[in-house]
Design a protein that fits this description.
Elements lengths: L1 H10 L5 E4 L9 H28 L6 H30 L3 E3 H34 L4 H4 L2 H26 L9 E2 L6 H7 L5 H14 L1 H19 L4 H9 L2 H19 L7 H26 L1 H17 L1
Parallel strand pairs: 1-3
Antiparallel strand pairs: 1-2
Helix pairs in contact: 2-3, 2-12, 3-4, 3-12, 4-6, 4-9, 6-8, 11-12, 12-13
């Protein structure tokens, strides 16, 4: 019986490329979609690079909060390029083919960066917790060494988890069909196309995912429960508004990121909800990285003031 199964496996045609269907069912909108995503890509890249440049260049922004923000903006530039660059090429040329190795690389990079973002957002919420709930001890507790440890730990943990899953995925065989009904190579659609036994990788992914996402999410939620409780105890309205303004930008980013992420992965995987799944995937893979620099620049007094100075200086030189 084992020899028969082996013979069948040997006779299978192993595919070398996948077809990302993406938005191919909307041929009349390809040019419009390309232009929309191109604008989003340019705005996202320029916004995040500008924030990195401001954080590095200005001494007033050399604080823990902006250190983490610089890391987040760096992450968003990589995050966006992983998904949008390939999508733009596909929309422009009509070429929806991607190699199996390329399809492994995309969820590895994307998954690693998404996991890193979860931990960075948790580190940022802990920073805000110390600033609001432990203001007298903030400078001593959130020192340069701890900032580096939290940032480095976020990047290392994010990439380490995905190395394990990708190493298991590299052992899978794909015999067809080769069509992925998505605009990027996501873990679940790829797993469905494998003709190998996926029980082991499914168990490993469930264990790692249960450790990877809920932990930073719970840390973030706990930090904000303490922050809100502390703010509500402040007697003056002005004091409450001032305290809340220091964490409101981060709270918006966290809500949008986790809200869209949970909607995508908790949404039932039915044929009728496939289109809706793509829409929400666009939100957390494409729109969230664009909204982050806008949220921090429009709602942050220091960043707005610095941007005003830069624009004034540039106009004066002109």
């Amino acid at each position: 019986m084992h020899l028969v199964d082996k013979a069948k496996e040997d006779n299978r045609t192993v595919i070398a490329e996948f077809i990302l269907l993406g938005f191919g069912n909307l041929p009349e909108l390809q040019v419009l979609l390309f232009l929309v995503f191109l604008v989003i890509y340019i705005v996202t890249m320029s916004g995040n690079i500008l924030i990195i440049a401001l954080v590095v260049a200005d001494q007033h922004l050399h604080t823990p909060m902006y250190f983490f923000l610089g890391n987040l903006s760096c992450l968003e530039t990589c995050y966006t390029s992983t998904i949008l660059a390939r999508l733009l090429v596909s929309l422009l040329t009509g070429d929806r083919m991607i190699s199996v190795s390329g399809c492994f690389a995309q969820p590895y990079c994307f998954g690693s960066l998404a996991a890193t973002e979860c931990y960075l957002l948790a580190a940022m919420s802990y920073d805000r917790y110390l600033a609001i709930c432990k203001p007298l001890h903030y400078a001593a507790l959130m020192n340069g060494r701890l900032c580096l440890q939290l940032a480095a730990g976020s990047w290392i943990i994010g990439f380490l988890f995905c190395v394990i899953i990708t190493s298991f995925m590299s052992e899978l065989t794909f015999c067809g069909p080769s069509e992925i009904d998505h605009f990027f190579c996501d873990f679940s659609p790829m797993l469905k196309l494998s003709c190998s036994d996926t029980s082991m990788i499914t168990v490993v992914s469930v264990i790692l995912t249960s450790l990877d996402s809920p932990c930073p999410f719970l840390l973030t939620v706990t930090s904000y429960v303490c922050i809100i409780a502390t703010i509500l105890r402040i007697p003056s309205t002005t004091g409450r508004q001032k305290a809340f303004s220091t964490c409101s930008s981060h709270l918006i980013v966290v809500t949008v990121f986790y809200g869209t992420l949970m909607t995508v992965y908790l949404l039932p995987k039915t044929n009728t909800l496939k289109a809706l799944n793509k829409v929400f995937s666009v939100f957390y893979t494409v729109l969230t990285p664009m909204l982050n620099p806008l949220t921090y620049s429009l709602r942050n007094k220091e960043v707005k003031e610095l941007l005003r100075k830069v624009i004034h200086k540039y106009m004066f030189l002109k």
